[in-house]
Restriction endonuclease type IV Mrr domain-containing protein
Amino acid sequence: MPATDLEIALEKIDPGTFEKLAADILSERGYDVSPTEGTGADGGRDADLRRGNETGVAHFTTRNDWKQKIRTDAQKTVDRGLNRDFVVFVVNQLPEPPRVVDEVRDRLQEEFGFPTTVLTRADLRTQLTTRNPYLAEEHLGIDAAKPTTDPVEEMEALKDERLSMIASRSNSLPNALPGGPCAVLHLFPVGMFSTDYGVSPTKLPSPPLFGGGQSHLAGRPVGDGVVSINNRIQEEHPEYVFLAEDGYIEAVTTLTFERTTVDAFTPTEPNRVDPEVGKHLMQIVPGSLEVLAELGVQPPVYAFVTLLGVEDYQFPTSYAGVSLGASLRPFSDREEPKHSILETMDDDGTGLRPSLDRLWQRAGRQKGSPHFSNDT
């Protein structure tokens, strides 16, 4: 099935949010749920349950080894002498084939002697899209009732639209840019296309400055978001960071490129892309995620790195006296390595590594970005 907002959010959900979501889902299924404190992390019960005259135990897990985990939890329920009529396990995994779940349930019931229910991501998805979509909005920031679409396709379409505006220096950009190549970072939360953040530009938090750090001045509202730039005196500025009221970040710089001056007495050298461009983009990530979190964004966040207008540009073969590779190649006009996925809202920028590695490998450096390899 398509990787929908809901599907991705359930796959990437953090354990704390999952416990709250699972408890509410069980409540909607007719259980009286009493979450326990301090016992989930060591394999103890996550909630006590009651249904009619029967009492039970619930265990929640986001671990990939869910079969081993729920068996361990079942054993601990027995070892602790918890006299329960039933046990419910809620996992965020999507076992294939589905019959695996029935086999695991039957083995648990046979071994431990209590009726067992196992709810998987498929059960959660069905309940959130049909009976209780408000829980998806409350815990995941997603409109689960929205028709099924592929969020990555929507992100790609919006990215292409924004890149076209940047390439043409559209008057609709949040700040005027000088001509020349650009490095662009887009951060798209997984739920942005089904979430109305309901915040006007005048009330949006200020995005970070390009390269990281907060401006001492508030971001400037620009009609559909708020923009931060390092200098407000010039109408045209070589870089900006834009927070759209739709809940995404766009960061653009024209400063990481050097056009070689050629005269009759010097050999032709390639136009250069500053090898620090990846580090500059990484520095934007923490502050950007911080302001997105203020809007209620939940991970994951998809990160797209693009170099625009870089035909005949290339990375230098050395930097600060260190060799970066002897066979680096020039770029095409538009370089777009595959997106990276930021799994948490406290990513320090290293989550961009897959995209930056691909960009450097495209340029001819097999080991990828020198910001991550040990032998720069």
The two ends are 41 Å apart (CA to CA).
